[in-house]
Write a structure and sequence with these properties.
The chain has 452 residues and is of the alpha/beta class. It has 2 domains: 17-351, Collagenase (Catalytic Domain) (3-Layer(aba) Sandwich), CATH 3.40.390; 365-451, Sandwich (Immunoglobulin-like), CATH 2.60.40.3080. It has 8 helices and 14 strands. The strands form 2 sheets. Strands 1, 2, 3, 4, 5, 6, 7 and 8 form an 8-stranded mixed β-sheet that branches. Strand 10 and strand 11 form a beta hairpin. It is globular. It starts with 16 loop residues before the first strand and ends with a strand. The model is unreliable at 1-16, 32-39, 57-64, 211-218 and 363-370 (pLDDT under 50).
Length: 452
């Protein structure tokens, strides 16, 4: 079957984009990468390796990895009732947020099915990045649908859908983007023209000013007016418009990896075994992998990794079908953590408060005040959670358990109490990230937990 490749060129030398394409009739995952010239790419990698080295130099037994929270806004680009499927449901978007959290926190239930090689099991990592649906728009208004902006192209005076990438870059993204220092922008639309087979594409991060030793990289990561990821409306989440083999939300997981500084696992070198993704714990492989082995978890080898454990087709940065894309490695985690700690418009997302309206406070976790002490355990939790509260003065307080979509899944109220230990049964809730919030006259306090 003929493969369709997308080749995109922009005059903006600083713009770095990755795209996923598919074949005619039967979709096949494929990326076309628009990067800076070779010296610029080498400079980026030099900076990345320098950042990783600096991080490792300070590693010791007391080091605690940073857990970052990224607020997401999904811009759903549609044309009213002409093609209703483009205007996907809130449930479909919500399912994607859940998938992002499970996959970036190494909580996917698919992992044990598709990863059987012990070396890959050991290398698999919790990236320690959380995602929450933005609850407040740029004007400070609480959103009716958290994390969703619906944009009818007719109200913008834009050309009719579907859109090719140049139109998306020049018109759609700049015309709808929300402050990329506060929101992770994701556009959902239908691709057209030469890009009709595209699944999605991402913009690489920007190295900040004054980052030694690669100050020559300043400004070359991409424009703020286009920063984010674009995904086809058929490849978001695991309900609604999706269909196999891209029906488990891994397209956005893959593209978010690019947005956080990851390259394709095989290094985009064709089949020469000479390319690299600059990650030491991802095996060298001859090229991209498509589909999944007929036997779940089977070893797959090629000319570059000819023996067990074989190639890591289970990695999110390969091209496998969604069902067997189930892991990042510790080396990939180090790259993404370095980007979140250093890169313009990435680090600032962790201090954004746009999720705070739904009980999620990105700025930090306040666990005690002058007259209140709070402890939430165990964390991670399996079914039952204990919330220990000590209040100096008896008062009313409310304990809420909130998911990343801002939905309260459990709430307990106590009147005129000095606190104590409150047991909360979460055995009926799905595994993933939750936020425990305590509100009383002394203030509002939050704690992130993982439910296994």
């Amino acid at each position: 079957m003929k493969k369709i490749f997308t080749s995109i060129t922009f005059s903006l030398a600083c713009l770095s984009i990755t795209a996923q394409n598919q074949v005619e009739v039967t979709p096949k995952r494929k990326c076309a990468t628009v990067q800076s010239n070779v010296p610029q790419q080498a400079a980026f990698e030099q900076w990345m390796q320098s950042a990783l080295l600096k991080d490792n130099q300070f590693a010791n037994s007391r080091k605690v990895s940073v857990v970052y929270t990224i607020p997401v806004i999904f811009h759903i680009i549609h044309s009213g009732t002409v093609v209703p499927a483009r205007n996907i449901s809130q449930a479909q978007v919500n399912s994607q947020v859940t998938i992002l959290n499970n996959d970036y926190r190494h909580l996917s239930t698919d992992f044990s099915t598709y990863v059987t090689q012990s070396s890959f099991t050991t290398a698999a990592a919790d990236i320690q990045v959380n995602f929450c649906a933005a609850n407040v728009d740029p004007n400070g208004n609480v959103m009716v649908e958290p994390g969703i902006e619906r944009v009818n192209v007719a109200t913008k005076g834009w050309s009719a859908l579907p859109y090719a990438t140049p139109y998306i870059e020049s018109t759609v993204k700049p015309g709808t983007i929300w402050d990329p220092t506060k929101y992770y922008n994701v556009w959902i639309l239908e691709f057209g023209g030469a890009d009709a087979s595209t699944l999605g594409y991402a913009q690489f991060p920007t190295v900040p000013s004054g980052t030694a030793p690669v100050t020559d990289m300043v400004g070359q990561g991409g424009s703020a007016s286009t920063d984010g990821v674009v995904i086809g409306y058929k490849y978001i989440g695991n309900v609604g418009t999706v269909s196999a083999p891209y029906n488990k939300g891994r397209t956005l997981v893959h593209e978010t990896g690019h947005w956080l500084g990851l390259l394709h696992i095989w290094g985009d070198d064709g089949t020469s075994c000479s390319g690299t993704d600059y990650v030491t714990d991802t095996p060298n492989q001859a090229g991209e992998n498509y589909t999944c082995p007929s036997t779940a978890g089977a070893v797959v080898t090629d000319a570059c990794s000819a023996s067990t454990p074989g190639v890591n087709y289970q990695n999110f940065m390969d091209y496998s079908d969604d069902k067997c894309m189930v892991m990042f490695t510790a080396g990939q985690k180090a790259r993404m953590q370095a980007v979140m700690a250093n890169c313009t418009r990435r680090l600032s997302l962790n201090t954004s408060t746009v999720c705070s309206g739904n009980g999620i406070n990105n700025v930090g976790i306040a666990e005690q005040g002058l007259d209140v002490e709070i402890n939430v355990y165990p964390n991670p939790a399996k079914g039952e959670l204990n919330v220990k509260i000590d209040l100096l003065n008896a008062q009313d307080f409310t304990i809420s358990v909130i998911n990343p979509l801002g939905q309260t899944v459990k709430e307990i109220k106590q009147n005129q109490s000095n606190g104590g230990t409150v047991k909360i049964d979460l055995s009926d809730k799905t595994s993933g990230i939750y936020f425990v919030t305590i509100k009383c006259k002394s203030g509002s306090f939050s704690k992130k937990i993982i439910l296994q």
